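Example with several molecule types.
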Amino acid sequence: MKKEKAIYAGILVLIVVLFFANLFYGAVSIPSNKIIDILFGREVERQAWTNIILQSRLPQAFVALLAGASLAVCGLMLQTLFQNPLAGPSILGISDGANLGVAVTMLCFGGNIGFGNISLGNNLSIVFSALAGALIMLGLIIYFSTKVKNSVMILIIGMMMGYLASSGIAILNFSATAEGVRSFVMWGMGNFSGVALKQIPFFASVIVIGLILSILLIKPLNALLLGERYAANLGIHITRSRLLILLCTGLLTGTVTAFCGPISFIGLAVPHIARLLLGTSNNKQLVPITLLLGSVVALLCNIMTILPFSEKVLPLNAITPLIGAPVIIYVIINRKNIQYFN
Amino acid sequence: MKDTNIDIQNLSIGYFLKHRKQKLIKSNINQKLYKGEVTCLLGANGSGKSTLLRTLAGFQPSLGGEILYNEKPINSYSDSERSLLIGLVLTDKIFAGGISVFDLVSLGRHPHTGFFGSLKKHDKEIIFDSMEKVGISHKADAYVSELSDGERQKAMIAKALAQECPIILLDEPTAFLDINSRIEMMYLLKELASKEQKSILLSTHDIETAIRLGDRFWLMDKNLPFTSGTPEDLIINDVLSQFFDKIQFDKQTGALQICYKPTVDRGLSPTAINI
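Resulting structure tokens for the full complex:
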């Protein structure tokens, strides 16, 4: 109990520190006292600074906070549902499915693929198409998982499905303009800056709904630790719980992908960091910690995209593997000593 | 007359295939599960033991007949009501290595707890009590992955006890256990049945232990009708040896003797064995 409280406190402090670090540190250097002035709504001599802080850095930090939490909790739900510690939204091709959904919608309604420029379509249709793409992919994975029981094989099938979706996007993209291709490539590398200030309320409300749903699913998720038959024997309605878990992951992954691009590794790695930190896979403790830790990692990754002493910004997917991949390699190498693998 | 927990009437078990066809495994099963008794379900692989257990647990529909609990068909109970009737201990692989034994046993309280599954004082008492009864309390804080096979099985039984069901079904609870743990497990089940007045039905291949500790046998065989009785009666009346034709049972002691005569000479001459 004490340990859990200490972890909560540590994570919350980290979130606050990293959130403000995201505001104070960026490609353009702005004096700290001016940033404080801007945050308190005071006028500063350069309007550009106000714009950077309020129109770019603040929404970006906010999006990182929510997107990180979403992807992490999706990873956790998928790992529990598939009883596979190496499952995650990007590895199972769900992010790619969401991409394909968005690409198809944009081609049909915009006549042109303008990735990275979400304002093209209206928010709702983008989110719905991403959701549809993610859910179709999830449905296919579930179908294959009834045919193939081996969990490694399921991961490979998921990766193949992801490649198929990517090639679908590439084919669609072929008919797009040069500018479209460029922005698609940029978008495919992931970033938290794609959500404009006025889209934040919509983005935030969809994500918050998804996150609340994930917390409501803690009880069935815990029963599923024992597998479906035990869970059914404990009075859990398997079909309904499975559907809700899929809907929740679809909604969260779909929305995040529609706005931020396919972000790798956060969903896969954060649940492992949370489990190692907490020392339990009991979802009662794990779900909230994973959620918060997702925010920490996303905020951290977002800061790391800014190259020091230059105005260049790296794509997000260049950074997430730096944190995620070592974690995964570590848990695989040490799996004999890690309880939840056994 | 003993109190009945489950009354099986004219049950047929098997599978529904495509095109409205059925694959019948066994029909005409008429049995009762009594309170306070350990019933052992014995039979060769493929005789339909697992199908019967799955049908009783509600994982697959029966092809006909009735399973009655309290004179009501068991499928007229809702999912959540049924989770209060039958507790299960299966051979399924679980993904729960990373939770503590206490957490595992507390999952048994799921049918009793609210939406978030939070445990009240009363729930915790039952969980500790269940762990005490199977003798796993000293491992309450250990990870499930750190348990031996026998301890893991005990923890799953504690889970079923915490569920507070009058009936517990166990699918081969002694399958992966060494001989000492097997005997310990059977004693434990017998004690739970009589002390807690549970009906316990378990499938097993371990005839020797079952003869000594089981109260009643259910016998299944592809070619013979479903048979039941106390072990003593089944041995004295030469029924058991019909079901297990490679074993002879001593009518006084119940001891087993293998009486297998190879139909084909497999060349297992003494010299061959020595090599």
